[in-house]
């Protein structure tokens, strides 16, 4: 039995697989997001407790010897820990917006662009650079007390294994301090962000991931476990996206677009990031938009519609949603891909007394689809496209996405991040697994030619409305 752990933003999951990649059991626990005045924080002890709980549950439901375990989780944010991996303060989430004024300043004075040209990382308020700089100004005592500023899965890994020192991997370290050519921290970037005196907080990078054996915490003591990569590249592995030009769209809380590449292009508009992988010279060009299913969740909650009603409502209104349009930029920290606008907010247009809930739902799904198309084009998609995440549970939304994107979708269902974490662990430990069998798509959704042509024109309208919204956000 192989166990994958995926420490998500709102849900912690563990999945058990057999040697052919079939899911034997899945366990999940929700975790709390504390939102207040633009801050988004999480209790590290709650997150770790959820990890232990799902591991115990999944191993009880699928009893058998655990060959090895792989760990992945949400990226970015700042998780300050002491020498034992215990929290110094609540974790600042990747969704946190408190540092937006710093990003605004760095955008204006050229620091933002300089960092991108050196590292391929377009900073946003919830990434470690701005958050650490904000904490250094407003909560320096927390940084003084910390031994390391790590990422979610790193905190979990240290506590599961009892390792004496925190480490991270090349994927999590990619934003914003890592030089993608040398795979080492760029001290000039640290200096530009005013953090040279905090350089010691950056966790050492285990290239590509660290390995250890677990203590008694949900898995049998002594179980081999590997830390990383974080959830975006783990999902790429779990969906079989490794060949240059192929892409992955993760329709989850974050709408993440990834394209495998061997070309490092640090020109053009600074946006997204290059995620380092376990193979030097191979990257994932990532455009992780801030809001994916979270935008639809907000609209569903506001309109009183259940998730299981989405497919039915999508069938009640035609493409274009009777003129209703949604710019789906709902995150309190604005947008980070395929552009950075910390002050951008969602917009709802074309609504009248004749508009229905179905119109609002379709318009939201279409808006998310247009945002995905924008990200995939910017990331350089030329090959096949896999899709995973919670949104794949809606067949009607998958058909709509295929039409909006104008290309077939390789739908990969199940716990794709946990699956990728296991494949990464197997690679590190030399365990032979059939990656093609583990990443076989569950369905292929073809676009409808007529609807795809309609949405090609509608996408141009979306870009025009977005350009206007970006101008307003800057004024």
UniProtKB/TrEMBL annotation:
Q: InterPro entries, alphabetically?
A: ATPase_NBD, Carb_kinase_FGGY, FGGY_C, FGGY_Carb_Kinase, FGGY_N
Record's Pfam families? FGGY_C (PF02782), FGGY_N (PF00370)
UniProt keyword annotation of Chloroplast present: no
Residues covered by the Carbohydrate kinase FGGY C-terminal domain = 271-426
Q: Which SUPFAM superfamilies match?
A: Actin-like ATPase domain
Q: Which GO terms describe its biological process?
A: carbohydrate metabolic process
Residue intervals of the Carbohydrate kinase FGGY N-terminal domain? 1-206
GO MF term list: kinase activity
| Keywords of the record | Kinase, Transferase
Family stated for the protein in its record = Belongs to the FGGY kinase family.
Q: Would you tell me the protein name for this molecule?
A: Carbohydrate kinase
